[in-house]
């Protein structure tokens, strides 16, 4: 056997040994069914011009598709939402970190129209939720002024669907062009 053949065989053997040491992938999601906003262009938010009209906000079902439709409630977040997390330091001491989960809506209720609920049809995993963006700025507003609309998805206890907490909020920034 040539040196080249032995080298290729050894490389292949090492590759098989190394990949055989990894744990098996868990497979499909098998936790509780959850509802969440989906990313739009890599973010849980979007920027739209004032008076944009109807925009689509992506939502997703995490878990198997349902054989029957179910409703999802959506609300407008009026205040700041904080989350506290505890971390253990290298010396064994615990420290608590507070971070912001969602910022409050700054747009007035007449600046947008948000349905209180929408329906996830049977055999569906992704549904666009439609929001109407109206004239949020008067004629005296400066170019580049912004207002925020923060949406919050709610669990559906009757359909046994929880909320994916990390994807519960979606922020729409309304910009005066």
SSE blueprint and pairings:
Elements: H1 3-19, E1 34-37, E2 45-49, E3 53-62, E4 70-76, E5 81-88, E6 94-102, E7 112-113, E8 117-120, E9 126-133, E10 146-153, E11 162-163, E12 169-175
Parallel strand pairs: 1-11, 2-12
Antiparallel strand pairs: 1-3, 3-9, 4-8, 4-10, 5-6, 7-9, 10-12
Question: What would you say this structure looks like, in words?
Answer:
This protein is mostly beta strands and 177 residues long. It has a single domain, classed as CalX-beta domain (Immunoglobulin-like, Sandwich), CATH 2.60.40.2030. 10% of the residues lie in helices and 42% in strands. It contains 1 helix and 12 strands; from the N terminus they run αββββββββββββ. The strands form 3 sheets. Strands 7-9-3-1-11 form a 5-stranded mixed β-sheet, with no helix packed on it. β5 and β6 form a beta hairpin. The mean pLDDT is 88.
């Amino acid at each position: 056997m040539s040196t080249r053949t032995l080298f290729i065989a050894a490389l292949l053997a090492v590759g098989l040994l190394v990949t055989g040491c990894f744990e098996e992938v868990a497979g499909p999601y098998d936790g509780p069914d959850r509802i969440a906003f989906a990313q739009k262009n890599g973010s849980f938010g979007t920027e739209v011009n004032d008076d944009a009209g109807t925009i689509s906000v992506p939502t997703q079902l995490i878990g198997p598709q349902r054989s029957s439709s179910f409703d999802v409630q959506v609300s407008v977040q009026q205040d700041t939402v904080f989350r506290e997390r505890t971390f253990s330091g290298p010396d064994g001491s615990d420290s608590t970190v507070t971070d912001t989960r969602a910022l409050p809506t700054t747009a007035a209720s007449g600046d947008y129209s948000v349905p209180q609920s929408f329906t996830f049809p049977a055999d569906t995993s992704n549904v666009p939720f439609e929001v109407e963006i109206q004239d949020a700025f008067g004629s005296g507003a400066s170019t580049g002024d912004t207002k925020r609309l923060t949406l919050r998805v709610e669990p559906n206890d009757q359909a046994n669907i929880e909320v994916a907490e990390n994807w519960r909020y979606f922020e729409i920034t309304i910009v005066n062009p």
